[in-house]
Amino acid sequence: MTKTGRNDLCPCGSGRKFKKCCEARERGTRSRVMMLVVGGAVVAAILVGIASFTGERATGPSRAWSTEHGHYHDANGMAVP
Asked: Which residues pair with 66 in a beta bridge?
């Protein structure tokens, strides 16, 4: 199947040129899909950025609560503020 040129008759059968009939609709669909893809990537990047600043990191030191001392201790037994 060959690509329809801008000055060819529109394949929808309207009798008008493609550029005056269905080209804008076809171009609009592609741009909407691209906008959704880029928007999704931006949202994902923002969520990853937020996640890197909140919560404990898996690579960070582990902490354990000491009930007898009333504070946290790290893996070496040192008090953690």
From this structure: 71
Q: What is the pLDDT of residues 9-26, one digit of tens each?
A: 888 889 899 888 888 777
CA dist 26 and 55 (Å) reads 45
Task: Parse the chain into domains and list their residue ranges.
Answer: 18-80
- The 3-class SS string of 14-63 reads CCCEHHHCCHHHHHHHHHHHHHHHHHHHHHHHHHHHHHHHCCCCCCCCCE
The mean per-residue pLDDT over the stretch 52-78 comes to 73
Torsion of CA 39, 43, 48, 50, to 10 degrees: 150
